Amino acid sequence: MNSRERLLAAINHKEPDRVPFDLGGTVVTSIHVKAYQALREYLGLPSLQPVFSDVIQQVVRVDDDVMERLGVDVRNVSYQARVTARSAVQDRGNYTCLYDELKVGWQMPKDGGWYYDMFDNPLAGPVTEADVEGFAWPDPLAPSRFTGLRDAAHRAIAEEQRAVVVGSISAGIMEVASRLRGFQDYFVDFAANPKLLGRIMDRVLEMQLAYWGRIFEILGDDVDVVQSADDIAGQHSLLISPRSYRAMVKPRHKELFDFIHAHSKAKIFFHSCGAIRPLIPDLIEIGLDILNPVQVSAAGMDTTALKREFGKDLTFWGGGVDTQQVLGSGTPHQVREEVRRRLEDLMPGGGFVFAAVHNIQGNVPPQNIMAMWETLQEFGTRCT
């Protein structure tokens, strides 16, 4: 099988010749710049100036030589508008800071900083629906978002024989609302100001629908997977109640998913960290195809149970190795044992794409990354 055939088999719940491997196919399955530079040196590859796919998370675009060396099966061809700074990096005392195209401010410590944290929210405080309507929303149809996409997708499919992933214009409907309002106002809005919050979410949804419509006009059936996201859960539980999700968010997710399925053959990849188990049936109900990152260290996210209960309906993209407790601080032996366990749980019957749980962080030594990869090569072949 070539890489695209392998990926398409897996996400259609067939066992490919081996489990597909993703590194850098999305901005939530990539690698921190520090770990990436160390990996390149470990592999004996020349030092290159890194290109960020997400400057906020400090994760990089994986270069062709690494993709070839590790047999990466997917190619991201999208313009990463969500994370492109709209202002130059500025000095802010002990921090450097920047603003994204939604005018959200981000800062990173100059001394020992690993990534940017949010510090400025443009719609925080006592705003009205008129303020939401008057906000300078980004143009989802700006031509620069789509420049070169058709050629990039064609190269990925025809020349590289890799599957094509396209990322969203922005973070998720919930996530953008929380960034515009700030966490405190955002969570209060669910109870105290749902109409305002709903209007913000609607504007984000409108922006995303327009963007996806243009993507499908340009790329047609050359889109294999589209990436969406919304962090609905934390380490131990959901961030909002199931009732709030079903009342405020689920109808909007459904509208987005319905639009994507109606206008393309692409599978929907949805990222939510944390203990998302209580809402997995809701996501399946509204048409979700692929769940990421499968945070195995969170409550209720045991891979054996997830595969048993939801493996016929969902592809698990991620969950290959715990990045929270094992990949960064464990030994290579512990990494190998962890990877073997996740393969045993998730690979039977297809429906599994191997990636670490979320991005590989900057503290992960290259020896552990390669222990992960080597174990996948040894044990990630067809079960039957």
Shape-level CATH architecture: Alpha-Beta Barrel
Largest sheet, in brief, is:
7 strands, parallel
Helix content: 25-40%
- Taken in chain order, the helices and strands follow as HHEEHEEEEEHHEHHHEHEHEHEHEH
Mean pLDDT: 95
Count of domain modules:
1
Strand count? 13
- Which structural class is indicated by helix and strand composition? alpha/beta
Gross morphology: globular
**Strand order, sheet with most strands:** 3-8-9-10-11-12-13
Please, could you describe this protein's structure?
The protein has 384 residues and is α/β, with parallel strands linked by helices. It has a single domain, classed as TIM Barrel (Alpha-Beta Barrel). It has helices at residues 3-11, 33-42, 64-70, 129-134, 149-159, 173-181, 183-192, 194-219, 242-263, 280-285, 303-310, 332-346, 366-379, and strands spanning 52-54, 59-60, 74-76, 90-92, 95-99, 105-109, 117-120, 163-166, 225-229, 267-271, 290-292, 315-317, 352-353. The strands form 3 sheets. It has a 7-stranded parallel beta sheet with strand order 3-8-9-10-11-12-13. A 4-stranded antiparallel beta sheet has the order 4-5-6-7, with no helix packed on it. Helix 7 (183-192) crosses helix 8.
